[in-house]
Amino acid sequence: MVDKLFRARVPLLLLLGMAAFLVISYGYGPEERALPVLVAWVTMAFLALEVLVQAETPLGRRIEIILQVSKADPAPQPPPIGRALRYAVGWLGLVVVLTVLVGVLPAVFVYIALSLKLDGGKPLLVSLATAVAVTAFAWLLFEWGLSYDLYRGMLIDLVSA
Q: How confident is the model over 108-119, as pLDDT tens digits?
């Protein structure tokens, strides 16, 4: 049992850190703590699942099968330099430029759709569906759930002026 918990030491330490973050977050006012508390609880839920998987519990093995977790190669090869630069500079630059011009939600949609299609090799329909789902979740969470206005971009200011 101790050996299994030792294998799960990293997610356990992160879980303790997030618990401390949660306690600190509850010290804020009701509006200020909404997002930190949400992030802490969601992160703790995922970390609890990771502890179950790392400790190789029966439930953890089922989670591993359901999520089809594959063991990493013993010596993963670094990506080609072109792909590494595209990841490190290209995609980040695209997201920043799109966010400034058209806002957060369209930038998220374009980034996810293009990266899944071009770098992930996913079919176009899967890429678009995933981008729609993530963008809708972001809108529901921030705009609707937390009543937080996301940045609309410079172009919307030019069009509406």
A: 999 999 989 987
